[in-house]
Write a structure and sequence with these properties.
Layout: E1 11-14, H1 16-22, H2 25-40, E2 50-54, E3 58-67, E4 72-80, E5 92-100, E6 106-111, H3 112-131, E7 138-142, H4 146-158, E8 163-167, H5 171-184, E9 189-192, H6 196-200, E10 205-208, E11 227-230, H7 243-248, E12 250-253, H8 256-262, H9 264-271, H10 284-288, E13 302-305, H11 310-327, E14 331-333
Parallel strand pairs: 1-6, 7-8, 7-10, 8-9, 10-11, 11-13, 12-13
Antiparallel strand pairs: 1-14, 2-3, 3-4, 4-5, 5-6
Helix pairs in contact: 1-11, 2-3, 2-11, 3-4, 3-11
Length: 335
């Protein structure tokens, strides 16, 4: 990614359709790997997100960050309303505002839902590339929503996938997912799983992308050497992994500060006394920077616990803006 931003005097509006034209998963994976290294080396500025509960609906998140080395800062403002799909609306809606860091000029305003879907999966792909066994080819997707699709896309960029087992609490959702994705990925064998256990047994890679408040992964179902991307839970009370899995695994997080405040997958077993804070303090950016080890044996279970952090959004937004300006995509406006 270039450190010098394209010259522009107006603010660029980028819709979902614009982002689909300019933001590729492969490029986003590299942008996220770069910014996670910067983050763990202390080269970014990022407060923990501000969460505002919306009674009866969900929550609003304000996520600011600055990346001085890339010349940008910005904020993502999103709503997370889990029941929206029942009303025909996406669960995540919002905007990202991207500013250049010299004068603070707003460079772009863009759709946050698509950006979030891509950058979240790109972060899991970065962790998978760093932690999973090189020959990992059997993927289990627990949850068959938007993030399941983006994770399938992302992990196919970094590992030689051959088979995909899919489970969703709504069987019809899982069936539609398989029908759609099998056409897009004819090289893969898809299987509808009867339960999380059915999907997970024998998998080399597991992605949990659910809204479940209680564990959907049990240690007894996991094969040796499996890598897990735990993505769906992002509050202290919710978790997708059981305590035994987290205790047994080599755990990496995106941000230790955010994880210890927001990740129920880690907070709950920590409060149970299963382990000390040192067990869950290492960041994936430290592995990428060579500061901390990743996988230490073929048999080791590895977990990447993601809560999603603002530097990822701003790095992805910068990439999208850079590509959009280069390709002449988007609507320039004078604010």
């Amino acid at each position: 990614m270039m450190n010098n931003l394209p010259e522009a005097t107006m603010t660029l509006i980028l819709t979902r359709q614009h982002l689909e034209q300019v933001l590729t998963m492969r490029d986003c994976i590299e942008a996220i790997a770069d910014v996670m290294r910067r983050f763990s080396l202390g080269e970014t500025v990022m407060p923990v997100r501000l969460m505002t509960p919306v009674p009866g609906r969900g929550s609003h998140a304000a996520m600011p960050a600055a990346i001085p080395g890339l010349g940008v800062l910005g904020i993502k403002s999103i709503t997370i309303f889990p029941t929206n799909p029942e009303r025909g609306a996406p669960a995540i809606l919002g905007l990202v505002i991207l500013n250049e860091s010299n004068t603070g000029r707003p460079l772009a305003v863009m759709d946050a839902a698509y950006l979030t879907a891509v950058r979240t999966a790109a972060a899991s792909a970065v962790a998978t590339r760093a932690l999973a066994r090189p020959d990992a080819s059997a993927l289990a997707l627990i949850g068959a929503g938007v993030q399941a699709g983006s994770h399938l896309w992302a992990l196919s960029e970094v590992r030689p996938l051959r088979s995909v087992a899919v489970y969703d609490i709504d069987r019809l959702v899982a069936e539609r997912f398989i029908e759609t994705k099998s056409r897009r990925h004819p090289e893969l064998t898809f299987r509808l799983a009867a339960s999380p256990e059915d999907a997970i047994r024998g998998a080399d890679l597991v992605c949990t992308v659910t809204t479940s408040q209680t564990p959907v992964v049990d240690l007894n179902w996991l094969k040796e050497g499996v890598h897990i991307n735990a993505v769906g839970a992002h509050t202290p009370e919710a978790r997708e992994l059981d305590s035994a899995t987290v205790t047994a695994a080599r755990v990496l997080v995106d941000s230790r500060e955010a994880a210890l405040k927001e990740a129920g997958d880690l907070i709950i077993p920590l409060q149970e006394g299963r382990f000390g804070a040192e067990h869950i303090r290492d960041e994936i950016g430290e592995v990428l920077a060579g500061i901390k080890p990743g996988r230490t044996s073929d048999a080791q279970i590895t977990v990447y616990k993601s809560v999603g952090i603002a530097v990822q959004d701003i790095a992805a937004a910068r990439l999208a803006y850079e590509r959009a300006v280069s390709l002449g995509v988007g609507v320039p406006v004078e604010l």
